[in-house]
């Protein structure tokens, strides 16, 4: 739910928010289980001439896969979550969510043919092949993040002529991130030779346990930036335990800006907002009282819920994440309705606003109708 667009932060009633989330979860759970029943039913119909043991195996496979996603929540705080098997299991079980979505859509399309007296004898097999092809494409898209380069002229003075920012969000370190993928992200970031690295929240996924057990801080120590690494918390830092995440980040070179600001040696001001998961977070005007807005001001705010207030408050660059641009179609149609801007760049007033689709993902390792990305901002400034 979006807050209002006034300069102050407007939060929904907590009771209504809890009720909304409960109803949403129940509906999604019902749709997911109903979708798997539909897949199982159509599969068994297609296998009617198969031996009975084969049909039993098929039924167990479908329902075992469908229910496996719930086991990942049980394992997330266990030391088992740090094993390679846990990574494989997480990708398979979460991937089944997207498999279910597209299998249901393709099966439904083939069933529509029957209504017009054009039955397709191999509808289940056709849906299976089309889904496999689409998921292969989505996995490739996820494995090959793009680099978006934005050039901005800031009409404020700084002690440098140019300044390069590498901004990422939604890395989601945990069971779903392999060591090889993390190393790939680090090489991508370092290759841009950034002056500063900004992380727009959700660095951690659903638990700090696999991150700590796999000692991912050693890989993060390879990140290189002249002025350091700064991060604002996201909702997944709260899901993982914000206190535990803060404690973990102290072992790294990442500076967490949680309703706080930092001034770089060149005069640029960085402001990190706490996530909306904290209903007591400061308003943006309160935070900006800590900085001199006569100099360039860059704000990190994980959820893109208050874009206009940022544009009205003297912010020069606002970087957000959270939405994943829906991650897979048609979810991007949903996120575009939920947020003023669910993805991309715009100028609003004197502010440049960028909502990133994220470098990595939550859950299923597929990008369909969206892309994984790293954003490079090349800034120039007004001469003093």
In short:
By secondary structure, this protein is α/β, with parallel strands linked by helices. 43% of the residues lie in helices and 17% in strands. It has helices at residues 14-46, 52-75, 84-115, 123-143, 179-191, 209-213, 216-220, 235-240, 242-249, 284-288, 307-312, 331-338; strands at residues 146-157, 162-168, 196-199, 229-231, 254-256, 260-263, 269-272, 297-300, 317-320, 344-348, 351-355, 373-382.
Word description of this protein:
By secondary structure, this protein is an alpha/beta fold. The chain contains 12 helices and 12 strands. The strands form 2 sheets. A 6-stranded mixed β-sheet has the order 1-12-2-3-4-5, with no helix packed on it. A 6-stranded mixed β-sheet has the order 6-7-8-9-11-10. Helix 2 crosses helix 3 (84-115) and helix 3 crosses helix 4. The longest helix is centred in the N-terminal third of the chain and has 33 residues, at 14-46. Residues 1-14 have low confidence and may be disordered.
Topology (elements, then pairings):
Layout: H1 14-46, H2 52-75, H3 84-115, H4 123-143, E1 146-157, E2 162-168, H5 179-191, E3 196-199, H6 209-213, H7 216-220, E4 229-231, H8 235-240, H9 242-249, E5 254-256, E6 260-263, E7 269-272, H10 284-288, E8 297-300, H11 307-312, E9 317-320, H12 331-338, E10 344-348, E11 351-355, E12 373-382
Parallel strand pairs: 1-12, 2-3, 3-4, 4-5, 7-8, 8-9, 9-11
Antiparallel strand pairs: 2-12, 6-7, 10-11
């Amino acid at each position: 739910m979006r807050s209002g667009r006034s300069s102050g932060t407007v939060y929904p009633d907590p009771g209504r928010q809890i009720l909304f989330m409960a109803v949403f979860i129940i509906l999604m759970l019902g749709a997911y289980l109903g979708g798997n029943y539909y897949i199982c039913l159509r599969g068994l119909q297609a296998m009617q001439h198969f031996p009975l043991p084969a049909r039993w195996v098929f039924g167990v496979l479908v329902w075992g896969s469908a229910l496996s996603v719930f086991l990942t929540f049980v394992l997330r705080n266990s030391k088992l979550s740090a094993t390679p098997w846990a990574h494989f299991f997480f990708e398979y079980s979460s991937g089944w969510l997207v498999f279910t979505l597209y299998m249901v859509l393709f099966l439904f399309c083939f069933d529509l043919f029957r209504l017009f007296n054009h039955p397709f004898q191999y509808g289940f097999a056709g849906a299976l092949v089309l889904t496999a092809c689409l998921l292969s494409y989505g996995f490739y898209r996820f494995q090959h993040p793009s680099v978006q380069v934005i050039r901005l002229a800031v009409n404020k003075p700084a002690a440098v002529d140019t300044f390069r920012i590498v901004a990422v969000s939604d890395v989601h370190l945990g069971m779903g991130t392999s060591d090889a993928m993390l190393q790939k992200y680090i090489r991508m970031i370092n290759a841009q030779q950034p002056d500063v690295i900004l992380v727009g929240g959700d660095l951690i996924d659903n638990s700090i346990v696999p991150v700590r057990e796999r000692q991912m801080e050693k890989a993060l120590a390879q990140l290189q930036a002249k002025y350091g690494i700064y991060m604002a918390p996201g909702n997944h830092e709260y899901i993982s335990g914000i206190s535990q995440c803060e404690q973990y980040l102290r072992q790294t070179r990442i500076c967490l800006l949680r309703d706080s600001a930092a001034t770089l040696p060149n005069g640029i001001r960085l402001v990190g907002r706490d996530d909306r998961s904290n209903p007591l977070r400061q308003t943006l005007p309160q935070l900006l009282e800590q900085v001199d807005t006569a100099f360039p001001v860059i704000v990190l705010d994980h959820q893109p819920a208050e874009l206009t207030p940022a544009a009205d408050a003297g912010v020069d660059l606002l970087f957000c994440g959270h939405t994943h641009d829906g991650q897979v179609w048609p979810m991007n149609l949903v996120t575009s309705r939920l947020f003023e801007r669910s993805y991309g760049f715009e100028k609003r007033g004197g502010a440049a606003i960028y909502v990133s689709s994220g470098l990595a993902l939550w859950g299923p390792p597929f990008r369909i109708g969206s892309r994984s990305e790293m954003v490079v901002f090349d800034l120039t400034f007004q001469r003093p």
